[in-house]
Design goal:
heterodimer, A: mainly alpha, B: Four Helix Bundle (Hemerythrin (Met), subunit A)
Chain lengths: ~100, ~200
């Protein structure tokens, strides 16, 4: 059976690994900013990295990994918000392409 | 032990199980976080909408050094907060207090760098209603979104200091450190979306 000290060391080790992963993902976001790609491609890539980063924070820093019920509750809500966001901002293309003052 | 604890203990079999086996205070913080997520999501959607629909959107940022340091500080503060929570759960009061206060100091440092960033932009002529690089909507959105986040950081720093002091004084328990930690991680989580959308997408090439 693992002692309390071993549990403590494993926990801190896991925390440091997750922290290092999040730092690396933040670094990737900064690298993407310097890529010679369109704003929409940049947006998608950065958003994907941000979602992975946020998932790590939710699961390990906010301990959702340890509570299955709460994890589903937060996941369903998050997906609903993300879908809602997609509906919201993509409608802006209508202003660009469908309105009388469009370019 | 409070009167509520005595009452709960005496009627444990009769009381309803907490939702998702999460204590009421912690559940309240999760519900607050969920509501606040919707607030920030609304702001970022509005930003995305206006940015996409505005021709010639300005890209005024020439350096990302400041924002990179701010990100490093906030991410590191999440780790120190986690150490504080783990110390509190082990019953290490001094450790929990020390790590929580280190987190608060990191928050103050973040806020100071944020204000320096703002002052730099204000000195260049950017205000809530004026933008020297083009559409005024850029400045309005920039100061609104980053200001809302800064408000959360400031509130978080105050909460961390108050909770840490009361925890040391014996008025608060380890659970209260953990709940404050949840809020702090949320502030960090929001920053992960603010940085790419508000700063990095507006980097001058």
């Amino acid at each position: 059976m693992a002692t309390a000290e071993e549990h403590k060391n494993t926990g801190m080790g896991k925390d440091l690994i997750v922290y290092a992963c999040m730092l690396a993902l933040a670094g990737i976001q900064f690298l993407i900013a310097y890529q010679d790609i369109s704003a929409s491609q940049m947006f998608v890539r950065m958003l994907v990295v941000a979602v992975v980063e946020a998932a790590l924070a939710l699961l390990f820093f906010m301990h959702l990994w340890e509570n299955r019920g709460l994890r589903w509750f937060v996941l369903i809500f998050t997906v609903a918000v993300i879908l809602g966001m997609q509906y919201g901002w993509t409608d802006s293309f209508r202003i660009l392409d469908g309105a009388p003052w469009a370019k | 032990m409070s009167q509520a604890d005595v009452t709960m203990g005496g009627h444990a079999g009769l009381m309803e199980e907490p939702t998702f086996s999460v204590p009421a205070k912690k559940m309240a913080m999760w519900l607050f976080i969920i509501a606040d997520t919707a607030t920030f999501a609304g702001c970022l959607v509005a930003y995305g909408f206006i940015r996409n629909a505005t021709p010639d959107w300005p890209r005024p940022f020439h350096s990302i050094t400041n924002v990179a340091i701010m990100t490093l500080i906030l991410l590191t503060s999440s780790l120190t907060m986690l150490f504080g929570v783990r110390s509190a759960q082990r019953g290490d009061k001094a450790g929990a207090f020390r790590w929580t206060m280190i987190t608060a100091v990191a928050g103050i440092l973040f806020a100071a760098l944020h204000l320096r960033e703002w002052m730099g932009m204000i000195n260049e002529g950017a205000t809530l209603f004026h933008n020297p690089w083009g559409t005024p909507l850029f400045s309005s959105l920039f100061f609104s979104i980053t200001g809302l986040h800064l408000l959360h950081v400031t509130g978080g720093v105050i909460a961390l200091i108050v909770v840490a002091l009361r925890y040391m004084g014996g008025r608060y328990k380890a659970d209260d450190i953990e709940i404050t930690g949840l809020y702090w991680h949320f502030v960090d989580l929001v920053w992960m979306f603010v940085v790419p959308l508000v700063y990095l997408l507006n980097l001058a090439h």
